[in-house]
Structures are given as C-alpha cells and as structure tokens.
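To close the chapter, one final illustration. This time we ask the reader to focus less on the individual chains and more on the assembly as a whole: which components sit near each other, and how the overall shape emerges from the parts.
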Amino acid sequence: MKRKIRLKIRRHRPGSKTKPRFETFSLTIDEDSSVLDALEMILAEQDPTLMFRRSCHHSSCGTCGMIINGEERLACITRVSQFEERTITLEPLSGFPLLGDLAVDMVPFHEDIDERWDYLRDAEDLGGTKLPEGIERFERFENCIECGCCVSVCPVTGRDKPFMGPAVLAALNRELQKVEGEKIQPLLDQAGSERGERLCNRTLACSRVCPTAVYPARHIMELRVRLRGKEAGAGEEEEEEE
Amino acid sequence: MEHIIIIGGGGAGAALAHDLTLRGFEVSLFEKGELTSGTTGRHHGLLHSGARYAVHDRAAAVECIEENHILRTIAPQALEQNDGLFVALSRDDEEYGKSLLDACRSSGIDAKRLSAAEARALEPALTPDIRGALQVSDATMDAWRLAMYFFATARRNGAALHPFCEVQGIDIRAGRVTGVEVCDYKTGKTKTVKGDMVINAAGAWAGRVAALAGIDVPIQPGPGVLVAVEGRVTNMVINRMHPAGEGDIIVPQRGLSILGTSLWLADDPEDISPPKEHVDRITALCARMVPAVGEAVVRSVWSAARPLIRDAEASSPQQISRTFECYDHKVIHDVEGIVSLLGGKATTVRAMAEKTADLICRKTGREVSCRTRTTPLIPWRSFFSDEPGDESSRSAP
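The assembled structure is written out below.
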C-alpha cells in the first residue's frame, strides 16, 4: 500500500545569510518505508542538495539519528506509517555543531571517549554446549552505536554545565566492567569528575530515546553507587590524596 | 608527490586513500553524501572466509581468505570473530558440500566437517533437520566502522576527505585528465580541483562517474534485499550449503540477525526499492536453517546495489564473478589520467586498493611498495577525536 506523506524538514547552512527555515516535501511512498527511505527519495527525485547522514539502514552504524516529530530517533528504523499524522517533522540532533540541514558533526560526542575503549564484549549465552574449534569465547559488538540521540535529548548536556553526557558515562561503565587493576581508578576518576556523574539530573530521557537498548541512565546509576561506596568506605585514602 | 583525486567515499575509496597516503601521495577524496552512504554501509556485514565462492569463483575465494586474515589483525574491533557454518538441509546440499570442502581446501580456506549433532551443540537454534555442516572462518563486520578505520588512518596520514561534495565534471585537456569540478553541498559552491590522476571508486555508481569523462565502463548494479530481525539467535554466521543463491545467509550482529539476500540486475543504483516478495522469500528460506528468524520482529528492510562487472557469458546473475578489476582508461579509451576500480566486495577493499595503488605507481613512475597488509589501522573513533588538518588548502592546486 502506498501512503501520501509530507516531510517538513529544517533547512540551514551554517555561515549562510539565509536563516533556518522549514521546507515541506510531498511524496507518495510505500507504507512500510522508513523515514530514511523517504529522505533518500527526496534526495534522488526532488532535491540533491538535502544534507543528512546515513549508512547501514538497520541501526548498527548510528549515523541517521535526528529529531523526528519532536523525539530523537534513527531515521532508518522509524516507519513513515507509525505516526497518525501525514506530516512528519525532521530536525537535526541538538547539542552538536550543524554541518547542514539534518547532518551534524559528531566530534563533540567522541571528546571524552577514549578511542582505545573496548568495543567488543562477551556474547550472550544462546544455550550452546560447545564452542567451535579455535574460538575461545563468542564475542559481539557493544550495543551502543554512538548515534548521539541520548546526548541530544539530555536536559543537562549542551546547556550551561559542561556535562560529559550519558553516552560517555555508559561507555565508561562498560569499560570499567572489562578492565582490572590500575586501569580502574582513572576511569572512576573520570566518572566522578566535575563533568561526570554528579551533573546527571535523573530525567531518564537518555534511556527513553536510546534506539539500541543501552539504557545509559542505568549505567549512570551503577557508577553513582560505585562512586558513593568508595567515598563512604575510603575516607582515609581521600585524606592522604588531599 | 602527485595529487590523486578519489571519487567515491565507500570502502574502496577509504582503503585506497589509506594505501596512497602510506605511499606518500597527496590524496583528496570526494563523496556526494556522507561517507559510506552508498553500497558499503548497506552491506550485510559478512567478512567472507571465501567459502561462498570457492566452488564457482575461485579467484574471489582466494582473495577473500587472504583479506579475511589481514583484516582480523589490522582492524580487530570492527569484527565479531565467531566463525561461520555452512549447513546442509538436503541430500543435494550434502552433495554440494563434498565439492565445497574440496574447493575450500584448494583455495586455502580452512574448513572443518561437523556432524549435525556437533553443529547443533555449537548453535542450538539450528533446525533439527540439518544433515551436517562445515565450519569456516566467516566473521561479522561492522561495515561502517571498518570503513571508518581506513578513513581515520588515511586522514591522520594527510588525506583530505570531503563528504557532501559531489564531482559533477571531469576536466580533460588534450586527452589527459587535469582535474574535477566539485559542488560542495555544505556551501552550495562549485570549484575546480586540479589533480594528476582521478580514480573512479564509486562502486555501483562507477558508470555515472565514468560518463562524466565520456567513458563507458562495464558496471552493472546488482541489488539484493536484506532483512534485519530482532534477536541474536546464533553467534556464528549461518550459510546454506548450496550453490550461491537466495535466502542462504544469516549474519548475527549485536542484538540483531541480518537475513540475506536476493539479486536482480538494475540500471539505476538508486532505484532499488526492496520488492515485498523478496522479503517474504528470504525470510522463509532463512527460517529453514534457523526457525527462530521466521517468527522474529522485523527491525528493518533495505537493499544494497552490488557493483557487478557486466558479464554476458554468465548463466545467471549469481554466477557473475565477485572479483575486481582496475581499468586504465589510457589503454582502453585513450584518456590519460583516469582509472576505474570496478567490482569487488567489502571483504576485499584493501586488496582492491593495493592493486589500484600499484597501477598508480606504475603510471607515475614511483617505486613505492604497499604497506597496508601489516600496518594496523587507527580506531574509527579517532576520525572524530583527531583534529583534522586544513583540508581546504589541500584541495587547492
């Protein structure tokens, strides 16, 4: 079944004299299509200058995060028919420098993430009774696809306080669960810094919008418990440090 | 050193930018959209062992297993290294398995025969109907992050990367390419970029790019449908033990299972909407191997256009070789300074880049050998955390 829809897209080029404006495109598209399919149709048939990021089309790369009808989502797994209204409003993620239209620069996202943090983890147990010859354990990628949705929705990041944000804290907590010995303390220090866990105001918006079930708020909670335990139990060490 | 202009910001362009910067060339890369927004990102995420090609396309199989070993060492965090199985569901499959085992061994692919019970001990989600399996060194790749590993390393070594910049013209004077006309969608401005050589690495779009130079290249977009379903039901890649066909592969990735694929031939790499009947057929065929995927919630459906090299002799699209070719258009079309990189696949992008850079060295009279087999790549995250160099100055003559 085909569906007639309108995409109302925020258009802007940084540095241009034209102010940001909304432009509406009408199209007829298969009702199973994603918002990303609709954007690609506009790009091919109506406006080759429209800027948006995309790659994998199935929520593993994390490039097509944007604000769709007011909420952070991935365009590739958001279907045009999941909204009652025929007009779908698209805006770029907030809190990131704009490259143009719906495309943002992800540099700030990676500012506090160490590029060496491990992106692989043990895979879930699927009930197998043996491992293949030559494989010590089944591994898989982390759930976080670094899309920026949690950072965009967070009411603290991008405001006056320099909060490192939910994605960094979630990645940091995952890394903490994998490292041992002297690698632990620097991570805890980062989480407990002035830009860390303490600035989270527990809105839980990050977990609500996360498209891949990372639930950053839960990681922040775990960090909070871990940091407080340390403060309560290690008063003398703290005095020594001071 | 010579200034090489690469058109196309997919896996091939990424690997080529990396190879050329290591050899000391000045490199500018232009991609009309975001990096990897064409075929590369839409890739199903299989790092081939080569077994899929071993019986009918030995050249591609040998390329795959070599590259498989290399990528495991230079970009480990872009791979889930859990191996793969080819599973037999019928007597015909078992027959094919015999030639598959022989072909794997003669192509250098380590293949281990497993009984049905052994295979189900590894992967209990497999149908109880399987009759046997082969274990091979398939793996899951993050198609975006693997390409970004190459881009991050190339940029740190000096490559100027220009996403959202479309090459709209190729300048030719007296039979020689002198540069390109580029429209930068970030500014809306068009400019001329001079270069010593232009490399067409546009994948399924290579025909369009070559046409800018008045050249016809034998590229044929070959789209296929992919279906991502919720739930990771196996840890190993699951292939059907039969000649390359449809609905015969399940690639686990994170919490998803990616079902593939179909194949048809298209004229336009952008007109590839997934036909509904393909989705149903692929899902049903994959569910014969792993029943759980037939019941799973569909997360996404999309299609990707393979960059096939036209082959009038092939009896079916599946029989078209998945190897790659570098075309020096001086030899074929008497236009100097332009090379097209055609065919290939995500698993073999590094080898494609090596062969192309070797050709560029021969054409420019430079004797610099390839170093990409052993040079570890810098993690994709540094693409964003590195301070980029002054890219605009590099693209000026």
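Chain A touches chain B through 62 residues (CB under 8 Å). The domain at 2-104 of chain A is CATH 3.10.20.30 (Ubiquitin-like (UB roll)). With these observations in hand, you are ready for the problems at the end of the chapter.
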